[in-house]
Amino acid sequence: MHDIKLIRENPDAFDEALKRRGLPPASAEILRLDEEFRATQTAMQEAQARRNELSRKVGEIKRAGGKAEDLMREVVDLKEKLAELENRARLEEEELKEILSSLPNRPGPDVPDGKDERDNKEIRRFGITPEIRNPKQHFELGEALGLMDFSTAAKIAGARFTMLRGALARMERALGAFMLDLHTKEFGYTEISPPLLVRDETAYGTNNLPKFAEDLFRTTTGLWLIPTAEVPLTNIVQGDIVNREELPYRFTAMTPCFRSEAGAAGKDTRGMLRQHQFYKVELVSITAPDQSEAEHERMTSCAEEVLKRLGLPFRTVVLCTADMGFGARKTYDIEVWLPGQNTYREISSCSNCWDFQARRMNARCKAPGAKNTEFVHTLNGSGVAIGRTIIAIMENYQQPDGSIVIPEALRPYMGGLEIIR
């Protein structure tokens, strides 16, 4: 959600931010709606003040034994007028809120302008890509091992589902435990086991609704399956005024994630890169406004450390304006090397949303003794996607005979197992 005061004060800057996102100007329409809404509010205040004044006069006249029929009729008329004005104000406020909710966050000044993902900027790399002769993709390796079963998953649930068996099923569980231990014991995140179903206002708070409803799964009771643990974790502070001195809050959770993958027809149809259901360890931070930029760098480094411990080559890029998510002000993508595809693929996306989500959630902070509150800043990132980490381990640690060496850091979580044959 955007700050209407900033748009009033500098509409040109707001339109310039939209232009960087590839969108047409919107300030003129927003300000027109805002002016209409404020005019209606003023009319309501004036009508209420007149009604209060007349009611007082009617009381005085009656106490003096007089008659006040004309004034009483005007009081009745004002009551009807107030009801009409209140309804008009509600509709105008909804229309204004709808347009403000439909527009993406303003990109930060250090975010590169661009037209698509080719304009993203690489900022660092880690590791040496392995030299593998005729590398296989993860689904070839998994099916040959008999541990990755797509046909049974399709029989049970349809396309874009995977059934892992044996050692790969255990690796999924092991990776989650490894990541959570790292983030909680070394990086100070608090582990949360959140609800997997959320209400409309919760999904709205993290800008999943109304714009991205088709990307979600909805139950018959009206609740939504979470597309990521970002949704419940960020909404922990929904509607709250928190103590500024307690910030930042840092939360982590491993949850299944559910996505309809609307618009993904034909993309990554083989294997388990793009699924309707997958596990992910999520990182969420709630900060004071002056903390979020440093927290963004810290969060990204926490996600990178997962891949470093597992010995997986990766690169980190800053996304350009066209490739950045709807709610983000700035985003770092961490892309892991996949030998089977001979390319880097995203495994984590860490975003600073500033106060964009906080305004939708009405989440604020206040320093002790301060008169005013301020909106918190919210950040989220994958710490990291478990399914894609399995893919990366399989492809980077594959052996000529089709076996998979398990990274040393993961072996304690795999009961000491060193290789999957």
Oligomer: single chain
User: Which strand-content bin applies to the residues?
Assistant: 15-25%
Structural class by helix and strand composition = alpha+beta
Please give the alpha-carbon distance between the first and last residues.
51 Å
Give the biggest beta sheet.
8 strands, mixed
H/E element sequence: HHHHEHEHEHEEHEEHEEEHEEEHEEEHEE
Low-confidence segments? none
Strand order of the largest sheet: 1-11-12-13-16-10-9-4
Coarse shape = elongated
As a percent range, the share of helical residues equals 40-55%
Number of helices: 12
Average of the residue pLDDT scores: 95
How many β strands by DSSP?
A: 18
Cα gyration radius (Å): 27 Å
